[in-house]
Design goal:
By secondary structure, the protein is of the alpha+beta class. Among the domains are: about 170 residues, no CATH class; about 70 residues, no CATH class. The protein is about 40% helix and about 15% strand. It has 15 helices and 14 strands. Strands 10-11-12-13-14 form a five-stranded mixed sheet. A hairpin with a 2-residue loop joins strand 12 and strand 13. Helix 5 crosses helix 8 and helix 7 packs across helix 8.
Length: about 350
């Protein structure tokens, strides 16, 4: 008989693999790789995501990794900006490339390549980006002057989807600022190793997000037709309280559902909240309908589940909770919030 996992059991398993039950003593590079990338459309959100997961994390560590080209920002999972290690970009970008191309073809800009010599176009984009990093506006203007009969904005988007490219520093370097400028992945990262297999991709996902359904994997990656792949792999099979079939690595940890879960402050679009089709393991249906995930609000976890939102102000931390907290939970949130303010370099109080 297939073992059933409660929502709370799934919650604790996922938090453990996301390093949100206990902070870990690992490098930022190791954690980014373990998580198979971090959502990064907000340039500084990964800093807060790593702070919540690593015991001794300092912002300069991630900034140095970006400057040293050991981690990069690129359009990958779900065609959104993710922070990944350089090694994982080489492993997984080729797997996602067909999806990115299909995503562009079905976008409002897909029309721009109709009748266009794609090889000539991608060669032109590559030359422009490797001459020097360029913003999307610069790319659009330059491509528009070469193909004046086509929509320049659409050409710019086509270039970023059809040519593997990455954003370059100082964008997203802590304490600095810069426009989103792009160059080719090959130019920025140099020679790369072989691409991963889709089976390796699924295993990496399960190690960071499992147990999970096929639809969970597909939602996280932005891919489709993974069911035959997953079903053919040597994985443990479970069911959840909703009757869904879940898969997991045979030796993956699944903590006791009663394991304490401390308060955690997560940044906007943290992948904990985006890594599954069924998100009830971390947020209730009621709270999901508040629009905080789609709206990109930073979230507060209490007892492992989304319980509120937060915002750093000039004079402290404002926390909005959805339901009353016990005294112990209030103390936990205040203590963690004070540590968050220390990391952010802001003096002030935690206001609940």
């Amino acid at each position: 008989m297939t073992e059933k996992l409660t929502t709370r059991a799934l919650n604790r398993a996922t938090l453990h693999r996301q390093f949100l039950l206990d902070r870990v003593d690992r490098s930022a590079c190791d954690v980014v790789e373990h998580l198979v990338g971090m959502q990064a459309q907000e340039p500084f959100s990964p800093y807060y995501g790593l702070w919540s997961r690593i015991g001794s994390f300092q912002a300069d560590e991630l900034g140095s990794l970006l400057l040293d080209r050991r981690v990069v920002r690129a359009s990958l999972h779900r065609a959104t900006i993710h922070l990944v290690t350089a090694a994982d970009h080489a492993r997984f970008e080729p797997l996602m490339r067909p999806f990115l191309h299909r995503r562009f073809a079905s976008s409002p800009f897909g029309f721009v390549t109709d009748g266009l010599d794609v090889d000539e176009f991608t060669a032109a984009v590559t030359a422009l980006l490797e001459e020097k990093p360029r913003t999307r506006r610069e790319i659009s203007d330059l491509l528009g002057s070469r193909w004046p009969d086509r929509d320049a904005t659409a050409l710019g988007y086509a270039g970023s989807f059809l040519v593997p490219s990455v954003q370059v520093p100082p964008r997203a370097v802590w304490g600095r600022s810069g426009a989103a400028a792009w160059t080719t992945a090959a130019h920025w990262l140099g020679p790369v190793g072989p691409a991963a297999t889709i089976e390796e991709f699924v295993r990496r996902y399960l190690a960071a997000f499992g147990p999970a359904s096929v639809k969970d994997v597909q939602t996280w990656a932005g891919m489709s037709r993974l069911k035959p792949v997953v079903e053919a792999m040597d994985l443990r099979v479970f069911t959840d309280e909703r009757g869904r079939t879940l898969y997991d690595l045979p030796d993956a940890p699944r903590p006791d559902p009663d394991t304490p879960a401390p308060a955690r402050f997560l940044p906007e679009f943290d992948n904990l909240l985006l890594g599954h089709d069924d998100r009830t393991r971390v947020i209730s249906d009621e709270d999901y309908r508040r629009g905080i995930i789609i709206g990109g609000k930073p979230t507060l976890l209490v007892d492992g589940f989304v319980h509120g939102t937060w915002k750093i102000a000039r004079d402290g931390l404002d926390v909005e909770v959805f339901r009353p907290l016990t005294r112990a939970q209030q103390a936990d949130v205040r203590a963690e919030g004070a540590r968050l303010l220390g990391f952010a370099g802001v003096a002030g109080d935690v206001r609940l």
